[in-house]
Amino acid sequence: MKITQATIFPLSIPLIEPMKMSHDLITDAKTVLICLTDEEGRTGWGEASTAPLMTGETLGSLLANVKYLADKARALEWNDPKRFSVLLDSLLYGNPSAKSCLEMALLDLYTQKESISLWRYLRAQSGMAELETPASIPLLRMLGGSLEKEIAEAKTFRALGFRHWKIKIGSLPLAEDLHRVETLSDALEGDVISVDANGAMGLANAVLFCESAAARRLAFAEQLISADVPIEDFVALRKKSAIPIGLDESIHGLGEILQFMKADAVDGASLKLIKIGGVLKAFECAQVLSVNGLKTNLACKVAETSLSAAATASIGFAMGDVPWGFSMSNQYLRFDICTQPLVAEQGHLPASQLAASGVGITPDIHRVKDAIAKGYSLIQY
Ligand SMILES: [Mg+2]
Known about the structure:
With 381 residues, the chain is of the alpha/beta class. It has 13 helices and 14 strands. It folds into 2 domains: 3-116 and 363-380, 2-Layer Sandwich (Enolase-like, domain 1), CATH 3.30.390; 124-354, Enolase-like C-terminal domain (TIM Barrel, Alpha-Beta Barrel).
């Protein structure tokens, strides 16, 4: 398979409402889409979002790296998906987000050519038994804002079928966060509730949080302490914690999963394509987590479009189970880039929405062009 043309779209899509993280306020999704054309005229699409505090990528840097890879990719043959990441690594060091963007588009082309959906292809490659209809993936809904707003939102979305929740913590005093968690645990009794501090807590407060009776109903607590602290702090936290410990910013690939696993410092991990470096690597991580009895949370950065959501969900359908849910972030966008975006059905994503061959989402070129970020323009080779 040869690439004959590449078109790159730097986008900025406003969120329905700003999203408050412990160290960040996100008002719009900055994301890069690529459309590759092969020698038979097929088009394949890929996406990667910026995440300055997770991958170090801004729109400008991500665009530059995607452009560089796309230009070099045209000289190569892309016949074997298992070699895609080897080839991409031979073109550029590091830069997992840009590589994920290219890999997604290449996988989209390859699986379209093979007339198979991406998730079925992944499943077949893994050697797991064929799955006719995988279970719908539970979608995880983020809660934030004032407690009144969080409770109102929880009620609204619970009535729509959502049962998985993530409460952003770490920017308020500990006692206040614990009060929020306890109140929301009462309101959402029986559901799968998690918290995410994006590394904003010190070890002492993280231990206090995890030992508190107010947090006892949580399914897991994600990245309470910074990815920059020594692994001994993570070991100490998990040892003292009454609730399972999830990691996100600390995990950028299989090496870190194995390292934290060996140290008994983790119960599960959040997998995002932009930090792991693509679908195939993230799928391998999910398999290793599962085999070792650890839990997987699949996640898109806030926010990515239906395209990235589809590629990420493909890992979940191939696995057959996503115990800690899927943070599908296109639900926070004011508009999506395709005419039939992925949508929650009873708080879940059914595999029927990814029945087409390829990744399963074909962006609408007019919508994509309308979302080009201010000060940028599309790039075509
Ligand atoms: Mg997280």
